[in-house]
Design a protein that fits this description.
This protein has 298 residues and is mainly β. The strands form six sheets. It has a four-stranded antiparallel β-sheet, with no helix packed on it. Strands 2-3-4-5 form a four-stranded antiparallel β-sheet, with no helix packed on it. A hairpin with a 4-residue loop joins strand 4 and strand 5. The protein is globular. The termini are far apart.
Length: 298
């Protein structure tokens, strides 16, 4: 195991004060990073090549925002899953800004519960997690949302549904229910999951696993809430990299940039006296190579 990679140091990609920054996702068509501030109900976009930053305020707490195959975004919101046309105007061309059209794909409000992290599967379905605001044990779920809005509850009685990702061959699903302190792995056929077992367990005092991503080598990168670090685990569960960060609460990570070699890490200010960079988006340039991320087919 190494504590870092020679020549790679965390840099600030976006200086921000997000209460609960989350869900970084690279949009290769617009060459931008999409991320959310859950508790401020905002969706952010950042184009590294130009430095352009844009944001959209939405009407509910938003756990995740992912690109759609036909343009626009799919949102995991407090009361369900909704669709937006392109809120940042990447495909609108010159001229006046046009209204952003929103529709519910799946509306299923549950008092005291909200959407949290989400990920798009290789087949273009959205796997969307939920949790209770009070983090009551067993109050959350993980569901597969088909492009037509049909929902299948894949996991019930989870507490804080967080990182979700697939192996390069799509046959293994990696998943985090944060209070368990584990990264779990399932066998999957793209719809059902089976044979749950731990890939890795985060030791006491090292933080809690939050959002994750999978790289081109099939290794799992995970952000450690209260752990001031991201870690990389091999497919057999061996810890081989620990990258320390200048924020206490990193929340999630994703590869981006034109060649998918830069690891972006979101962070949070909520819940503790913040470091000056808390709530910012950090980047680890040239740290590895990511996998192209599917877009939602709906």
């Amino acid at each position: 195991m190494s504590s870092g990679v020679r020549g790679v140091r965390p840099e600030v990609a976006v200086r921000a004060d997000a209460a609960l920054g989350e869900g970084p996702t690279w949009d290769p068509v617009a060459e931008r990073l999409i991320w959310v501030d859950i508790l401020s109900s905002r969706v952010h976009a950042y184009q590294p090549a130009t430095g352009r930053r844009t944001l959209l305020a939405v009407e509910q707490h938003v756990g995740a925002a992912k690109p759609r195959a036909g343009g626009g975004l799919v949102l995991n919101l407090r009361d369900g899953v909704g669709l937006l046309d392109d809120p940042f105007g990447a495909s609108s061309g010159p001229g006046p800004a046009r209204p952003v059209h929103f529709t519910w794909l799946l509306r299923h409000p549950v008092p005291g519960r909200r959407g949290n992290d989400a990920a798009v599967a290789p087949d273009g379905a959205l796997w969307a997690g939920t949790m209770r605001y009070d983090e009551a044990p067993g109050g959350g779920t993980l569901s597969r949302i088909a492009p037509d809005g049909a929902a299948l509850e894949v996991l019930s009685e989870v507490t804080v549904s967080n990182g979700t990702g697939w192996s390069p061959d799509g046959r293994s699903l990696y998943y985090v229910d944060t209070p368990t302190r584990r990264i779990d792995v399932f066998d999957t056929d793209g719809v059902a999951v089976r044979h749950r077992r731990p890939l890795a367990e985060i030791e006491e005092g090292a933080g809690y696993p939050d959002g994750l991503c999978v790289d081109a080598d099939g290794c799992v990168w995970v952000a450690l809430w209260d752990g001031k670090a991201v870690r990389r685990y091999t497919p057999d569960g061996r810890l081989d990299r620990v990258i320390e960060l200048p924020v206490r609460r990193p929340t999630a990570c994703a590869f981006g940039g034109a060649d998918l070699t830069d690891l972006y890490v979101t962070s949070a200010r909520v819940g503790h006296p913040p470091h000056p960079l808390a709530g910012s988006v950090l980047v680890l340039p040239g740290i590895g190579r990511g996998l192209p991320q599917p877009t939602f087919a709906g």
